[in-house]
Q: What sequence folds into this?
């Protein structure tokens, strides 16, 4: 079974430009999550999409946005890039099961996109 | 806001030794996850701990959860070089504000 895929692997942009990152979830998974892993800051939650809608977002400015398509793939857009946006951006996907104590919607991560802002 | 603290952040150990990584979290949560990350790679799911007293083992790694103490441990038995990696614990928040909050990670180096 194919895992979470992300493209591109690396992306180099200059300050002020826009970046678009893409993610395809594991087949059957409806939820997609985006995380930023910046040096010294650890893994920080960015966005959660499920069934095409944004369900939650982390403490990031509005220039970080995204969407989820009908096939559950997702895009992360970062506008007006700043130097501190340089990071590894990780996408994860999961099932979202009905309630109950044994639901296991473990998030499975993709290989990431390394964004460098010059 | 949920806070997750791991310690130690850096751990250098010899092959064959045992050690424990600790993960404390600040508010009630249903589930705790352990992930492994190799340099330049993505995160690999190791364990999901669902309830108080849960214990899971895979090879030389054993994870446990005490929800009353809000503490999880990842115990390494007889370390080998292949276990060198960064280990993250993560805790989720339920409901409409669902998200995973990660600890800062523990960089484990196992020396021959």
A:
């Amino acid at each position: 079974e194919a895992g979470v895929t992300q493209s591109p692997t690396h992306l180099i942009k200059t300050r002020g430009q826009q970046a678009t990152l893409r993610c395809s979830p594991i087949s059957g998974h409806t939820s997609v999550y985006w995380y930023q892993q910046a040096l010294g800051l650890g893994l920080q939650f960015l966005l959660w999409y499920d069934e095409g809608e944004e369900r939650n977002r982390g403490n990031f400015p509005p220039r970080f946005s995204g969407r989820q398509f009908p096939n559950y793939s997702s895009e992360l857009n970062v506008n007006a890039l700043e130097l501190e946006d340089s990071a590894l951006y990780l996408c994860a996907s999961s099932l979202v099961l009905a309630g109950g104590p044994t639901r296991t919607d473990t998030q499975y991560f993709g290989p990431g996109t390394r964004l460098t802002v010059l | 806001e949920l806070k997750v603290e791991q310690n130690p952040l850096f751990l250098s150990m010899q092959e064959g030794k045992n050690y424990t990584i600790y993960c404390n979290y600040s508010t009630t949560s249903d589930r705790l996850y352990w992930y492994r990350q190799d340099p330049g790679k993505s995160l690999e799911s190791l364990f999901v701990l669902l309830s108080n007293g849960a214990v899971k083992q895979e090879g030389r790694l054993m994870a446990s959860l005490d929800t009353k103490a809000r503490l999880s441990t990842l115990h390494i038995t007889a370390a080998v070089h292949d276990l060198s990696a960064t280990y993250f614990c993560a805790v989720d928040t339920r409901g409409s504000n669902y998200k995973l909050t990660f600890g800062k990670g523990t960089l484990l180096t196992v020396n021959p």
